[in-house]
Amino acid sequence: MRITYVQVSVSGSKGKPIRCRFLVDSGAAYSQLHEEVWSKLGLIPQTEMEFSLADGTLIKRKISECLFEYQGISRHSPVVLGEKGDPALLGAVTLETMGLVLDPFKRTLQPMQLTLASK
Question: Quick one: average pLDDT of 78-87?
């Protein structure tokens, strides 16, 4: 299995957008920003949630939201405010909000096949 990284711009209430390298982690619900990035963007914690790590350890992290921009697609999405040592992750909620999906064979982000219920 290969790991996929993408360059994404993130924006908050202050400062210029910051371009970040994110690990695409479709197994993670929320995206996560490095502490130095979210503090520069002026993100303010809105709530706190509990998360389970791969080894089963439970941790709490603060949650906010920011604007993600990737290849001309811009959407607001929840974001975990990472602490020291936490990686930058692009999670499933952000991917779905942007209408993107990870192609497991090409290891690239592709437009999602969107469906609606019919009458």
Answer: 94
- Show the tokens assigned to 51: 């998360």
Would you say residue 76 lies in a domain? yes
Task: Classify strands 31-33 and 73-81 as parallel, antiparallel or unpaired.
Answer: parallel
Please tell me the distance from the alpha carbon of residue 75 to that of residue 49, in angstroms, as a whole number.
22
CA angle 10, 13, 18 (to 5 degrees): 25
Strands (E), the chain: 5-11, 18-24, 31-33, 47-52, 58-70, 73-81, 89-90, 100-103, 108-111
Please give the tally of structural domains in the chain.
Answer: 1
Q: Is residue 117 in a domain?
A: no
pTM of the complete model: 0.90
Token output for 39? 């503090």
- For 24-63, write each residue's pLDDT tens digit: 988 899 999 999 999 999 999 999 999 998 899 999 999 9
